[in-house]
Amino acid sequence: MSKIIDGKAISEQIKREIAAEVANMIDHGQNAPHLAAVIVGDDGASKTYVASKEKACHSVGMTSSVYRLPESTTEAELLQTVEFLNNDPEIDGYIIQLPLPKHINEEKVIAAIKPEKDVDGFTSVNAGRMQLGLPCYIPATPNGIMELIKRSEIETSGKNVVVIGRSNIVGTPMAILMSRKGIDSTVTLCHSRTKNLPEIVRHADIVVVAIGKQGFLTADMVKPGAVVIDVGIHRIEDPTSPKGYKIMGDADYDEVAKVASMITPVPGGVGPMTIVSLLQNTLKAAKGEVYPK
Ligand code: NAD
Fold it and tell me: pLDDT tens digits for 72-122?
């Protein structure tokens, strides 16, 4: 049976470290780091995400503000809000919660975010800087996975890594980060057009699965002793659970755990690391570590 990579415990440890740094900043007469979030419309999942980001900010002593805009907000109005946040010296970093309503062009809005405040790492400037290995804000989920790998002391140098899924927020940045100098893995990026995917995955020492298909990664695809990082999040109806649903990942956890040497559970693996990464980026923004103030 594999060892569980306890993302919840690791994220709690990182939160304690951040809280200590924030307390130290305040002791030295500095402002607490300030994260703002913009949410447009009434999407239930988005509201839940923003509420948990707000709660996480408070838990480490950071300031948070949320701009709740109605579904009817025009693109021009949202761009005005972005402009305001770009120029407000009180705000160190901010996020625009996606998805945006259909009548708003997401790319245009993201392009308007000042890279210095783009703590989600979604702008082309931060994505480009990441690719070049320059100081940047790394998107929260890949950043969280890199922390999990580092803090679980998983050997990466010379290892074969297979990333399944090539989204801009998870798969593609993961492939870039794992191949970087210092991490030194040999990376294969698989996607929906990949041929012989199970065969490729069977060569992996580390598998990162982020495709959004529950139970996709089965035990027969995993080399015995491989490390499995499961990014998927699926809410599955379950009348036996008090909530009426359970959360599952992209891996067939019970079977894969019998083969892998280490595995992230869902929930409690990658998920808790994502919010903590946003706090880490906000702290970096406040300290001017990525873009000197
Ligand atoms: P996405 O839908 O943007 O991208 C999915 C990718 O998977 C695409 O690149 C596609 O080519 C690939 N793909 C789809 N079917 C495939 C197949 N059969 N074989 C190989 N590749 C295939 O997804 P995303 O935003 O990267 O999210 C992936 C999953 O991770 C989702 O379940 C999402 O909910 C979850 N997620 C979790 C967190 C977290 O904090 N844990 C964060 C972001 C996303």
Answer: 999 999 999 999 999 999 999 999 999 999 999 999 999 999 999 999 999
Residue closest via CA to ligand 1's atom 3 equals 167
Nearest protein Cα to ligand 1, atom 18: 192
Q: What angle do helix axes 7-27 and 44-59 make, rounded to 10 degrees?
A: 50
pLDDT of residue 1: 79
Ligand 1 within 6 A of CB of 138: no
212 lines ligand 1 (CB under 6 A): yes
Is the pTM for the entire model greater than 0.90? yes
> How many A from CA of 166 to the centre of ligand 1?
7
CA distances to 31, 76, 166, 285, 286 from 117, rounded to whole Å, are: 16, 20, 25, 7, 9
Domains of the chain: 29-114 (3.40.50.10860), 140-270 (3.40.50.720)
How far is Cα 5 from Cα 258, in angstroms, rounded to an integer?
A: 14
The tokens describing 191, both together, are 């996607």
Query: From the CB of 165, is ligand 1 less than 6 Å away?
Result: yes
Tell me the one-letter amino acid at 137: Y
Tokens of 145: 């996975």
CB 66 within 8 A of CB 37: yes
Query: Is residue 10 a contact partner of residue 266, using CB atoms and an 8 Å limit?
Result: no
- Which numbered atom of ligand 1 lies nearest the CA of 144? 40
**170 in contact with ligand 1, CB cutoff 6 A:** yes
Q: What is the dihedral of CA 216, 218, 220, 224, to 10 degrees?
A: 120
